[in-house]
Amino acid sequence: MRKFYLIGILFLMSFTTYGQQASETTEDFPPGWWHIPKTKSILKFGGYVKFDLIHDFNPIASPDFFDVTKIPTDGSEGRSSNLNAKETRLYLDVKSPSKVGEIRTYVEGDFYGSGGAFRLRHAFVEIDGKWLAGQWWSTFMDENIIPNTLDFEKPGAYAFARHPMLRYKHSFSTDAYFAIAVEQSSINAQAPAQAGNFENPLPDLTARYRITKPWGHVQLSGYAGKLVYRFTNGDTDEVNLFGANFSGQLNFNSLKDRFFYQVLYGPGVGRTRGGLSAAIDENGNLKALTDSGFTLGVDHRWNDSFSSVVVYNQGQVNNLAGQPGTAVQAVNYAAANLLWHFAEHAMAGVEYLWGLRKDFNDADGRANRLQFSVKYVFN
What is the pLDDT of residues 241-259, one digit of tens each? Predict the structure, then answer.
């Protein structure tokens, strides 16, 4: 065992020494980046540790995160407390020069796998800032307006997904670009009564156009997909799925604060948030479910030590006659917090969460949660 310790120490010493020597003969690297010995590559390892203490004043079937679709609508009551550190995150970022431009490889994971197991969040190769192959935020969503909540789940009626993809990005200028991608499609729909299986014949097609200025950014994105149900007799029922997303942020108060927004609509857009994309109509046929949703929020910096975020989200589903009465029809999500940045890279905060779920049969349920978190970022 001592041999392994000694080898590790010698490796780290040689790694540091070589990196220091390389920095004398090459350009300075950004803070936190290391030069990989005998290569032209640099790497950065980082992540954070996060602890959550959660108290629910009402029942909800997602104790580790606030998923409003998991709120019961049967009138049940109950309280519960839960402690976890599953959001703890690790990543490895490597950048290498090449004849086709900079090649970046990135891997990230957290511990929200089954039983707290480490799971993959992101993993991709990016070439010259244009081509991306791997798993990353969906091109349909706007990853820059993800609310800075302590809650891991984020709003319900909100474009929020990580997909395996092949993406191309074209910059028109320093502040505008267009991106288009083919992404892994998902099967989450109500099956017809007749026996059969769902198929994804094609990947989803996603695209976005974004303009970024000192005052903030604005983005318009869309997606198209296809869902097929193949009956055991060989017949098929096919549904085309579409969605549009308008989002962005406005910076204010000397650019320290921001107002962010998102409007989402489309037949089958529920696929972009893990919801149902299609269901059964009154004739027993498979049809796309038309969803709509909007999100409004504000990030505010009180001073160097304290900040807050307030966010509200609402979504609606145009249910079909063939759906059960317990199908989700509408959701509401609200969160407000106070974060104390008590040291560099360290934060503690408290957050109040409220949610409402309404079903197709008009039954509804509410949930109230109080969450306390401590987080330290290392990189």
Answer: 999 999 999 999 998 999 9
pLDDT band at 237 (very low <50, low <70, confident <90, very high): very high
Above pLDDT 70, what percent of the chain? 93
Q: What is the number of domains present in the chain?
A: 2
Do 129 and 197 belong to one domain?
yes
Residue 272 pLDDT = 87
* Span 272-313, pLDDT tens digits: 888 899 999 999 999 999 999 999 999 999 999 999 999 999
Q: Is residue 275 within 8 Å of 301, Cβ to Cβ?
A: no
Please tell me the distance from the alpha carbon of residue 226 to that of residue 238, in angstroms, as a whole number: 7
244 and 342 housed in the same domain: yes
How confident is the model at residue 121, as a pLDDT? 98
Q: Are residues 16 and 48 in the same domain?
A: no
Q: Which domain holds residue 3?
A: 1-32
Bridge pairing between strands 346-359 and 34-35: unpaired
Reported as type and span, the H/E element at residue 25 is helix 2-25
Q: Tell how far CA 379 is from the center of its chain.
A: 21
CB neighbours of 43 closer than 8 A, spacing ≥ 6? 33, 34, 36, 92, 93, 94, 95
Q: Pseudo-torsion of CA 33, 36, 37, 41, nearest 10°? A: -110
Domain match, 148 and 7 both: no
| Total residue count of the chain as it appears in this document | 379
283 burial type by CB count under 10 A (0-12 exposed, 13-18 middle, 19+ buried): exposed
Residues 1 and 95 in one domain: no
Q: Which residues of 130-157 are buried (b: 16+ CB within 10 A; e: fewer)?
A: ebbebbbbbbbbbebbebbbbbbbbbbb
How high is the pLDDT of residue 28? 67
- 272, 138 Cβ separation under 8 angstroms: yes
Based on the fold, state whether residues 14 and 77 are members of the same structural domain.
no
